[in-house]
Specification:
Strand order of the largest sheet: 1-4-5-6-7-8-10
Shape: globular
Distance between the termini: 24 Å
Number of strands: 12
Order of helices and strands: EEHEEHEHEHEEEHEEEHH
Radius of gyration: 18 Å
Number of domains: 1
Number of helices: 7
Helix content: 10-25%
Length: 274
Amino acid sequence: MPQSDSIYASWNPWHGCTKLSPGCKYCYVYRQDAMYGAEKASSLCRKNGDFDLPLRKKRDGSWKLPPGKIVFTCFTSDFLLKDADGWRAECWRMIRTRRDCFFYFFTKRIDRLNECLPPDWGAGYENVIIGCTVENQEMADYRLPIFLSLPIRHRTVIAAPMLTELDLRAYLDPANIEEVTASGESGTDARPCSYDWILSLRQQCVEREIAFQFHQTGARFIKDGKLYRVPRRQQIAQARKACIDYKIAPRDMPRDALSRLPAPPEEGEQLSML
């Protein structure tokens, strides 16, 4: 499908983030900034030039961000980053104005959501999807109870980078969680992800009738006791080849966020594992 026909778009109102927990250790934003020789440190949050993208129009008066898009928001930072507190209210206003699009952001800072919400949030904006990121059991047990207690209309759980096996059964309520996504870690220093962990999490979702997506293998992937080194451009393809997504409708793969970033060179064979 041509990219222009994709249902996905990206919007990064600011760039840069401070590392918070074990999943941040080899952050892809830091890697990409280093690769392209960014003039400012990745830990410094700064406003991007396309800050007002949702409100921009073409010469013919139509939106540059067409109606109906699922907009991956703030994927080179964290939407709830404290350093961005001065800009977020304007983003909420744009999101509220563009009710014809869905805005989807992931966060490791779900414990800040209450203090970051707009006054008219109520039970949540219908066009906002929030993904809570968990990388190990400790972070799951801390973040997910908070996540489930908050007024959010559309919730997903992002197990990425998946650093250990996860038991999320205490949190997988289909009335509150719409989807769980699992991914290994990318990058030359990536920590291994086991296919057994992925299958275990999938089974937990199946038992609760919650949609599950295996997004990418990561750079170091263990299957049947063997460690595979997977080149960046093969990581999503190998995950899709496994055919273990559950209740996920066939759709155009997002061409942004992790999957759109230029791949750093990695050594290793392109092995067909799954």
